[in-house]
Amino acid sequence: MDKTAIPLPTLRALARKMQSSGLNSLALDGKHWSVRLTFAATPAAPEPATVPAAEILPITQRIGAPMPGTLLRRHPHSQQDFVAPGQQIIAGEVVALVQVGPLYVPVISPDNGTVQSFAAEHSSAVEYDEDVLTFRSP
Known about the structure:
The protein is mostly beta strands. 10% of the residues lie in helices and 36% in strands. The protein has one helix at residues 8-21, and strands at 25-29, 34-38, 59-64, 69-72, 88-89, 94-100, 103-108, 113-118, 125-126, 131-137. A four-stranded antiparallel beta sheet has the order 3-10-8-5, with no helix packed on it. Strands 7-6-4-9 form a four-stranded antiparallel beta sheet, with no helix packed on it. It has a two-stranded antiparallel sheet with strand order 1-2. The model has no long low-confidence stretch (mean pLDDT 84).
């Protein structure tokens, strides 16, 4: 083999670069050798199927208690619930509290949506991951 020959790993690397750049033909010539690399034209990727907005159904999700304790639908110093059925919520919003002794742990919405119903009443005991409320996300 001639010392000016192109090693096979180098040709493979060159072929990968050609393919990734969209180059479909390359010819290399030496004194006693020649190499021609040719790729078939890549077919265009098919268009992804789109679903009309009317066909996308909202997903009903649940929010569970972050730990066992007493569910508080409103702050102890407030008369108004954090959220009510039919209310829009955003991801990261506090929707309730779980009281564990003197500690108040927030129940946080994981996604945007509309509150459907509460699964537990104010001041009721809840277990870890027990349903607190359900909501529909778009």
